[in-house]
Amino acid sequence: MLPPSTTAMADEIREAPEAIARFFDRDMPVLRETARRLGERNPNVIVTCARGSSDNAAAYFKYLTEILMGVPVASIGPSVASLYHAPLRLQGATIVSVSQSGKSPDIVSLQAACRAAGAFAIAIVNDTSSPLAAGADAVLPLHAGEERSVAATKTFLSSAAILAALVAEWRGDESLIRATRDLPEALKTALTADWSEALPVLTAASSAYVIGRGPALPIAAEAALKLKETAMLHAEAFSGAEVMHGPLQLVERGFPVIAFRPEDAAADAMGEAVLRLRATGAKVFVAEAGTPKPGRLPIAPSGHPLLDPLVMSLSFYGLAEQVARARGQDPDRPSRLKKVTETL
């Protein structure tokens, strides 16, 4: 549950459901036309172009596309185009670029290189007057409004929700289509979820792990990023499988772990990972469905297991904002970061 706060981050967390609802209210024809063109091209491969939180949204899209469409999705490092000027072979492929500002030169450069190599370019941007939008074949605007906090929250969720809706329309999956339209209401409920049990543990921590599987893994990556940039807490994200291949060695009694466990095909495997982590003495908090009990972080069901990681993400944001303030940090203005980062 997000308590009253004067931070822009808290305000923007609360604004996320309405931002997503605005997209569905205003741009369904654009979404359907983009999905139609994507289906018409029938790409054998999709590449993504993004950094930071936007890259986590792109990774969420990767899992949905590979699970539901069977099309491999790969992230291309922007420097391949912006610094190394490598020739790309992408005839018949699609590039999906995600950027709040649409201005970073490396992101713009990679999209242009992919398009010149034959790829169909889709841009998800908050600023539709940006160079990235101007250089795309199709633009899906976030309608998130100004984001004043350096930490991206509503733009991340808007990007991920729009990408989920794109996959749903491309597949013609009526169940997922309905769930994406209902997502703003599920997110409003997620704002009331009380994750404060984890607050004192994370406030006192020097390091933490965040784990997930499948579409929940990019949400874990986004959560770890938020703890680093807003709370100055060293946090690392791992797959619930990958954490057993080395990182487990660092887990000692009391070590904090946040686990995202939606009721999808990976739920049982994630349950086993949680048990192994708890056996080390780690302090594990699990975002999952079920009756309240110690160590369980309540979630708001989205109506579809592949969307549940998004509602978990919003509840986590509320926790991260509280952790930052409890650690004496300003989540809106991290000392070494700025809102628009332009890299080559």
UniProtKB/TrEMBL annotation:
Q: Compositional bias of type Basic and acidic residues: which residue ranges?
A: 327-344
Q: Which GO terms describe its molecular function?
A: carbohydrate derivative binding; transaminase activity
- Renumbered to this chain, region (Disordered) spans 325-344
- What are the boundaries of the signal sequence? none
Keyword Repeat listed? The answer is: yes
- List, for all copies, the residue spans of the domain called SIS: 34-186, 198-329
Q: Known CDD domains for this protein? A: SIS_GlmS_GlmD_1, SIS_GlmS_GlmD_2
What processes in GO biological process is this protein linked to? carbohydrate derivative metabolic process
Instruction: State which residue ranges cross the membrane.
Output: none
- Superkingdom of origin: Bacteria
Swiss-Prot/TrEMBL keywords: Aminotransferase, Repeat, Transferase
The protein's matches in PANTHER family, at most eight in alphabetical order, are given as: AMINOTRANSFERASE-RELATED, GLUCOSAMINE--FRUCTOSE-6-PHOSPHATE AMINOTRANSFERASE, ISOMERIZING
Q: What is this protein called?
A: Aminotransferase
